[in-house]
Every structure is written in structure tokens, then in C-alpha cells.
Amino acid sequence: MQDRNHLSKVKITHQTKIITDGLLDIPMLQLLDESGKPTDGAKLPEMTQPLAEKILKSMHYTRLLDDRMIGAQRQGRISFYLASRGEEASTVASAAALSDADMIMSQYREQGALVFRGYTTKQFMNQMFSNQEDPNKGRQMPIHYGDKPLNFMTISSPLGTQIPQAAGYAYGQKMAKEAAITICYFGEGAASEGDFHAGLNMAAVLNAPCVFFCRNNGYAISTPAAEQFAGDGIASRGIGYGIKTIRIDGNDVLAVYQATALAREIALAENCPVLIEAMTYRLSAHSTSDDPTGYRSKEEEEQWAKRDPILRFEAWLESKGWFDAKAIDTYKEETRTEILNALKVSEKVPVSPLEDIVEDVYDVPPWHLQKQLTELKAHVEKYPEHYPKTSGRKS
Amino acid sequence: MAQMNLLQAINNALITAMDENERVMVFGEDVGHFGGVFRATSNLQQKFGKGRCFNTPLTEQGIIGFANGLASHGSVPVAEIQFSDYIFPAFDQIVNETAKFRYRSGGQFSCGTLTIRTPYGGGIAGGLYHSQSPEAFFAHIPGMKIVIPRNPYQAKGLLLASIRDDNPVLFMEPKRLYRASVGEVPEHDYTLPLGKADLVKGGSDITLLAWGAQVEVIEKAAQMAEADGISCEIIDLQSILPWDAEAVCESVYKTGRLLINHEAPMTGGFASEIAATVQQECFLYLEAPIARVCGLDTPYPLAHEKEYMPDHLKTYEAIKRTMDY
Asked: Quick check: B108 and A148 CB within 8 A?
């Protein structure tokens, strides 16, 4: 039996002093200032031109997709959309710092990471139109993507549930001796959920190679960060759990890339979690069901629009001689056309057949689901005009 | 064959599973070096190392969240919730995650390899927070399987089947029987089928149905009734979800009477579901209304535990009422 002393790291004091806030000084790493110039003394990451171009294109793609799909929702073509304007550097540049073997567990505003991984326009559309070509079989609202070949875990609506799961997934990677980690994204609002605390503590205690990436974008739907937590953010909680932690400017591609690459390296080499708090701003509404004019001013939004992560990165690329405005314009135009064409195709693809309603609940449908399906089929056949999506189809 | 109590049978099943598959991992509060508060995981850490059998922090939602992630990776987690009374912080992870993982991803990802072990039930002077039988909450969750053994032989065979089944299983252990139930258990590897009831004893006048620790209660009541000349058929449901309606209905076609006994409160208990299905399937065969002998619709009492329990005497009285209807 091993002797233990839980006071071994505790120092003694004779002064009655309550610790007040401000003692933990956690600065924000910024490598490019808001005009895109390297900050004083900044050691920039090594980034090749092709990678820089891929990051830029992925950010543009994400924004174009967002803009088009908000439009599609307004036209009534899809039920729901959730954009990520302003947060593209956080999601794209962090994904860029990973290996393709790393698992991504996202919250729901990380389409940028999925774009970078190579999810195609067709795949985005099939998911959003819940059609039979969606590998998730049309079971979830738009934007709840998931793709096993790309190591992108299917998104779940309940907030924060992916956080302890990421600890478990990473533990599995470690036990299987894989050269891979798990990255887990969430917002500062989700960090109020019990699962956040459970997950970070589990990961720290059980030495899970996991990067927790908090997008502190200032709002949880309408609730501003100041009404979400006291203190200056989420980073201090990482310290509290004994987790290596860094706070970064989430609108600075180079800071995001550098910090994520370093966090990944540490997680893998030391079998431990690392917390990144990316300070950013949700320029979009929470979703198409939300209207930010009810809780924040145009002036505030304009202030943040000036800190656009894409513009900042483009300014840096320009200074390197890597920015070809004309080529980007062409890329954007082609992308718009590609999205529109794919949208028109996917919206006409039918939903999956009725039989799918009982599939994947269990590995095989048990007797009671088979019985319910038989009854349902007979009912649909009796009233085919009321169930036009599935009636009269052969599976 | 070896004599084992129910805990030893569970421990033996875990060792068998961990020996056979190195991806099986066992964890929960106090399950590591200490071997669990009931000792179900004794010696596992010594035998298989800290990587595969370990303590977790005190967070049920964390345990199941972690287990879900581990299962989705393809590992085979056997997570322990120390008392089923404390499973509720993990309710969201079980309801919205464990059970829906496969469905929501179109079968791309799943938690099928997960088994959640948890002791349940009363009769141990545990009061309202160490005695609950929450199976009905989980029976309402498509995607879950729920399994409850009544003796050491079943415990080993059903636990091994649960660990190997490609669906998440909530394995509820009747803690009242942990040491009280002793029996012959094969030392070799074997499984018992999930979703199947166990016909404990044949009979012709009335079907008595229970699971877990209550099976011995209905057996005792049956002995009293048989002294009165009433022939009782006894069925142990074993699996709550999916449950073996076919076996139960076959029995009721024959006997024309059904009594269901469970420890959990009456209202919304799993007996309600069984009764609804049986009256649907066997309406013209029924000689009497289906009887339910259950816990009261109160929290589980401490001082009045004996009065609360759906014991053999209450069951015996209900058998007579059903026969006299």
C-alpha cells in the first residue's frame, strides 16, 4: 500500500488573506496585430505557402457556404442554419495544425474545421437537406455533420456532452497506442455545463491526450459572456484542473495555428490534456432562429467586423507576397457556383426509405421495432397522400 | 463448476472478458485498487494494470461521458455507477448520447460496446438513496438494453453477453443478493441470451413474473399458493429492454392469469408496460385482471422498509385475489 500525503504540494502561510481575482494573469497570444502585421517580438510559425493558401480558401469557403445557406433557410429550402462568421480563423487554423488521424469532436459551429478536413460541398448539402445520401440518414437538423472517414465525430445538439467523451476517446487512442489525439471544441457558454467540469477533470486525472479548444465568442445565444461567468474567461479553469493552458487571439490565424500545433505536440508527447481559450466574436446570429438586434448594438458588431480574421490573414499574406486578389475572387466565384449547383441537386434527392426509421436504434431492429414498422407501413399504404415522402417507394 | 456468490460471479465474468479482449476496460468510483465498494472489481487492477482498471473522479456524468467516448473509439468500456440511485447526473449522457449515438450518425459511430454496471434495489436498510430500482426510466430510452440477473450463474452469463453485445447495456445488479445468492457457476466462458425470459418453474393456474431479487419473493409466494392447490408458473424476465413478450404471452395464453411484481414504485413502473402489452395480446384468454404487486408510490422508506416491499405475503394475497376474481 502506497503512503500518500495530499498536503505535499500545499505551502503554509500565517497571514489571513483571501485570494481575490486578478491574481492569475493569463495574457492572450497575438502574433499578428489587427492590421495583419507581426506583433513586436513575435516568433511566427513556419507555414508554407500552400498551407497558407489552403487555410485562406477554407475560411472563404466557410463564409460563402454560411452566407448561401442562411439565404436558403430564408427561402424556406432548409429548416435551420448556424453560421460562423468571424470565427473562421479559430476553426480552420486549429484544424490545420492537426493530423488527419486526430479525432475532431465539435460543438456545432466548427464547419471551418470540417471544410479544412475535406468535407465536400455535396456532403454538406446532403446533410442539410436530410436526404438519403446523407450518411447520417437525414436524422438530424442541418449542420449536425459527422463523417467517420474524416475522423469528424457526429455532432450532438445537447451542449458540452462531447467534452467528457473527448477525454474517453483520447484515452482510447492512448491505450491503442495510436499516434493521434482528440480535439474537442466548445463555446464559453457550454463551459458552464457540468460536462465541461467533468470532462476536463477526467482528462487531467486520467492523462488523456486531448486538446480542449474553447471558442470564447462573447455570446451564448443572447447571453453575453459577462452573464455567463465571473472572472476573465475560461482559461483559468484549466489551471484549476491542473491542465496546461493557453489563451490566444482567436481571430489571428497564426496564433491559432501555432498554439494548436504546440498543444497537440504536448498532448501526444506527454499524454495529457491542453486547454486553449480562443478569444473571438460571433459576428453571426446564434442561428437562423435568432435575431441579435434584440441584445447587442450595430456599433458593437461593426467594431468586431473590423477585426475580421480573413482580412487580417489576407493582409499578412499580402505582406509576404502570397496574396493574389484576382485568384481569390475567381475561387470565390467558382465556389458560389459550386454551392448553388450542389444545393439544387441535393434538395431534389429523396429522403431515405421508410424502413430506415427503425434502423440504427440497435445493431438490428428488435421484435418490437419490427412490429411497429410493419404497422406503420400498413398505415402509410392506407393513407399514401398524407405521407408523400415515403409512400409508394420501394426500399 | 465452482461455488460463487453473485459478486464473485461478476468478478469472474469481468476477468473472463478482460482476459479474452484487451480492449475491455473497467472503471468507476473506487473500482481500482480497492476493488469497488462491494468488491465486484477486486484484483482487476492488480491483474490487468492501472490502464485497464482504474478509479475515476467522483462524477457520474463524467464516467458515462468518458465511457461513451471510449466506446465510440472502439474500446470496450465496463463503467460502474456505484449505486443506481446516483446514476441521474449521467442521465443526459445515457439518454441523449449513449442510446442515440448510432442512430444520429447513421451507424457511422456507436456506443455499442458499452456496458454500465450498477447495483440497484432495496432490502439492505439503505433508505431512499441506496435502494432505488430505476429500470423503468431507462426502459423508455430507445437504443438501450437493460439486463438484470437473479443469481450467480445468470450474472456471469448475462454480463459476458452484455459486454460482447453490440448495443449499450445497462446491467443492473440486485445488491441484496450480492452475497446472499450463492450457486454453482461454470469456470469456463459462457453467455446467456439477452432479450430472453427464463422459465423458472412451470405451472397452469397463474403466471408470476418478476426480475432480479424479486424472483425469490414470487417463488416464496408460489410455495404458499401451491399449498392451497394453486399451480404457479414462474418467469424471470431477465431482460427489461427489449423484453421477451412472446414468452410472457405464451405463458398467459396457458394460465389465463398474470401477476407482475417489482420493487420500483407502481406508477409508471415496468409492470405497466407489460400489463398493457399482455392485455393487448391475450385479452380473450384472461380470466382475471392483471395484478401488479409493486413498491408504493413513495420514496423508498428506511424505517418502513418491510412495509414498503412487495413481499411474498402481499404477492400471496394478490395471487388469491386473482384466483378468486
From this structure: yes
